[in-house]
Amino acid sequence: MDARNDRPTEYGVVPMEVMASMSGLDFVRGIFGGTLPQPPIMQTVEPFDCTADPGEIVMHSVPALRHYNPIGSVHGGYAAILLDSAMGLAVQSMLKAGQGYTTLEFKISFVRGMSADSGVVRTEGRTFNVGRRAATAEARILDTNGRMLAHATTTCLVFDLPRSAIGGTTSAA
After folding, report:
1. Which GO MF terms does the UniProt record name (predicted)?
2. SS3 of residue 51 by DSSP
């Protein structure tokens, strides 16, 4: 269930032509608001109370026992999903209709461990710069006391989506 409106959360991939027709900010807000499906990977971390402003994303989630690794703490992949998503969505929120992005690289630093007792964690993503071809961003995960649990940086490639996705035509050779 979606914590914001008590309706089941829909997961799926938004068709390219729908994404291409929207500004990045409208696209991200559509996902957060439930008018577009959540990406399937989010079933893993179940974010809630998500907000998007130009270049800034905030998501909340709760690590649980199902996120544990063999050594008895929350797996780093949980943090990686949250951080990569927050940075990517922050970049997406700055794009014009017809633009896309992909992650070229990201680096994570783990500061404190998470457990099922951590409670609600807050993930914040923020862009540093979004240019015509590249974008950089950062994200951090904070516990309920504002202590940093992990942080990351990324570089993304920004590109124009295929013309067929934005209503253009292609010519046959």
Report:
1. 1,4-dihydroxy-2-naphthoyl-CoA thioesterase activity
2. strand
